[in-house]
User: Fold these one by one.
Assistant:
Number 1:
Amino acid sequence: GAVVSQHPSWVICKSGTSVKIECRSLDFQATTMFWYRQFPKQSLMLMATSNEGSKATYEQGVEKDKFLINHASLTLSTLTVTSAHPEDSSFYICSAKDRETEAFFGQGTRLTVV
Amino acid sequence: KNQVEQSPQSLIILEGKNCTLQCNYTVSPFSNLRWYKQDTGRGPVSLTIMTFSENTKSNGRYTATLDADTKQSSLHITASQLSDSASYICVVRVYGNNRLAFGKGNQVVVIP
């Protein structure tokens, strides 16, 4: 199946700093990428949808200035958590799809803000 | 509102035993339903996908069923192994767009 790679797998950062998470589609061109957030024992919550070359569409309640999403190429999208706070600590997962296939998930990134 | 409800929330089973997980949904219009396995600290991995016309789909020891009339699906795990310990997530795609409705998952723990 298609491979979606996220980096890093885990990251610890200090409050107030920014963290960038990368999502890459390794063997297909991802026209659409999705970013999710998952709290323990909860379902995945869609944060935003990004299409290559255009601005991301954010879900209600998600601050676009805090969670910056860039989808500059067909194989790479990035999520930057700006001015991170402890409440931003969570599991962040991306998924990617092309026009023909279902979306495939990355392996997730565990963010801990201390 | 498109919702996906899964039950039981969690269960513990003995290695080698079978178990069945349930998923009820209210998503409309319906496109397809997927079962994912999510290991702790990892992203979801697809097990099965079923469209409206499919009643059952197998992937090794995993067998999914779908009743589109009653909007119910199940995932049956046969001869469970310790590596089956994970969260199993039911995901329903809304027809006509890219939106997915996620269940909270069934947390399965297989013990020796």
Number 2:
Amino acid sequence: EAQVTQNPRYLITVTGKKLTVTCSQNMNHEYMSWYRQDPGLGLRQIYYSMNVEVTDKGDVPEGYKVSRKEKRNFPLILESPSPNQTSLYFCASSLSRLLNTGELFFGEGSRLTVL
Amino acid sequence: DQQVKQNSPSLSVQEGRISILNCDYTNSMFDYFLWYKKYPAEGPTFLISISSIKDKNEDGRFTVFLNKSAKHLSLHIVPSQPGDSAVYFCAASAEGNSGGYQKVTFGTGTKLQVIP
């Protein structure tokens, strides 16, 4: 089954404790991206990757890191989480690095709470 | 700076009637527009899109209209069904310097409730 898989789905952590949210897709997609969803703010793009070893900042990259060492994986790293990073996070992928269709496939989301 | 705006946080419609969801954008460089639907506890799913060279795109019960001069697009659902109850996100993108639509900007979403 074609899918984007995120882990963990739910996480409660404390300020400053490094964490990684993994994202994996099995569709051989070139393009991958991370979003966060917050009330009243919609979905905001954190980072995106056009292909392996190619990453770029989205609209809200502060406090986050990403890497794209393999085509299928695009982990989101919070080196020193803070309470303002409490949010619902979505990973998404798209077949073409050119995103010709604009059709993104989303994971089910990871709800992160930072105390 | 919210470049894509959905000014109605919620909308209630009777089953069988038309649902109209609106979206406004400010960035004139946007030339590709999409609608996504999101159910609780799930990721958004792509619904329909439209290129700026068109003013209408239809897919079954869903039609998207684009008015470039007004920087406005709308999603029409006819007839509305209870299963359409979800949050709908408008999204827009612009072609990047190296080609392709790299950044997709989403609106804040409109929660649609279709009443049986």
